[in-house]
Predict the 3D structure of the following.
Amino acid sequence: MSRPKKGPDRKRHAGRGGRPGDRGKKAAREAKRRDQKAREDRDRAKLLSRYEGIEPDGRVLCQYGTHAECALSDGTVRLCMLTPKVHKLFGVCVGDRVWTERGATDQERVITARAARRTEIRRKRGEEDLVGHVIAANVDRMAITAALQAPPLRTGALDRYLVLASVLGVDPMIIVTKIDHAGEDAPEWAALEPYRALGIPVVATSAESGAGLDELRTELRDRVTVFAGHSGVGKSSLCLAMGLEGSPEAGDMSTARGRVRGRHTTSIARLLELPDEDGWVVDTPGVRAIGLVDLQPEDARVHFPEFAEFAAECEYASCLHRSEDGCAVREAYNDEALAASRYEGYVRLMESLLADA
Ligand SMILES: Nc1nc2c(ncn2[C@@H]2O[C@H](COP(=O)(O)OP(=O)(O)OP(=O)(O)O)[C@@H](O)[C@H]2O)c(=O)[nH]1
Ligand SMILES: [Mg+2]
Ligand SMILES: [Zn+2]
């Protein structure tokens, strides 16, 4: 965001610490904000104190404004309303654990509090969105989904998603989709090798032929996995092909002769359940660009774990492994001891972070 330039008038006063009136107003605004935050913390604690020792009875499947579809512990799925207080004090999103109570009538159910989150998947809406918004909560793993060829596999996108998972503290895996499009000798397979070498689970699938779906099902068991990837890579098709329960896309895609056809862009994140076993998937709308949250340029290097052994030999501890003298990471890249695509991906990521800073 570009701020209006400070005029000479502002500067003159700034030299003496700003206009006294301005300073007073700013301090008053800050005090008011602090008071409000303290009041909200108290209100939240008060709401939660009613549920001490009681497990949340609902899990949010999908959220629309002041309503959320919840799977309740009695086995039903109900559309619940957030009380204005809960809406203001907590907010809820897909994957949240909530407490619910009967509303004014038997038909109505309201969400009265939300449990603390184990993890949050946050994404930037745009450049001006500094903290990002939460698209899913309590997720254990991010399944970075990319098509083998259509749309083309871009390792830069994989690298950005891996950094996002690392920043958010969520384990990654990679799902390669649409392998029916390409043969075993497709050059894209080699591009995936550095990720396997890092120990990241890579599962190759096709919603069309069913290849890899059993292996994927095993990976999804006993955890909550968020599917993340660009639009059109085939996230929803996989959910449908695996028979995940609650897939809203099921009605929109025809499955003639057992094949998934047609295209339906997902517009809202949704929690889906593995049939016959414990495991959940959040299908999310694809995005064109992955906005990274909470990442300073100087911190990006720690999210490329394979650099660490070389970085120890860099001449400067603060080395950002770009063009510094005595950079052992760059040397490892030149000696082909590091995967070229990963190092080049890092350099591109640094350029974009430095441009944003
Ligand atoms: N050949 C082939 N096509 C597929 C496969 N999986 C998905 N597709 C096609 O790819 C297109 C996009 O699939 P979607 O499942 O809607 O992709 P998505 O990742 O959910 O996209 P967004 O919801 O926009 O993020 C559709 O036209 C699908 O039919 C596959 O395994 N093989
Ligand atoms: Mg989709
Ligand atoms: Zn270095």
Observations:
- The radius of gyration is 24 Å.
- Residues 311, 314, 319, 321, 324, 327-329 surround zinc ion (ligand 3) (CB under 6 Å).
- The chain has three domains: 32-116, 120-283, 297-356.
